[in-house]
Amino acid sequence: MKFCRALFAIVALGSMAPLIAQQPPAARGSTQSAPVMRVYIRAGLKTHGPGQHDYPQFLADWSKILTERGAAVDGSLHFPTPAEIATTDVIVMYKGDAGAMTPEEKATLEAFLARGGGVVSLHDTLCGPDPDYFSTVLGGAKKHGETNYTLEAPVAYTIVDPAHPIMQGMSGFTLTDEAFFLMTWAKSPAIHVLATAPMAPTPSARGHEGEVVPQIWTYERTLAGGQPYRAFVWMQGHDYANFAHAQVQPMLLRAIAWAGKRPVEALMTVRPERGRGTRGF
Question: Do 254 and 162 form a contact (C-beta atoms < 8 A)?
Answer without folding.
Answer: no
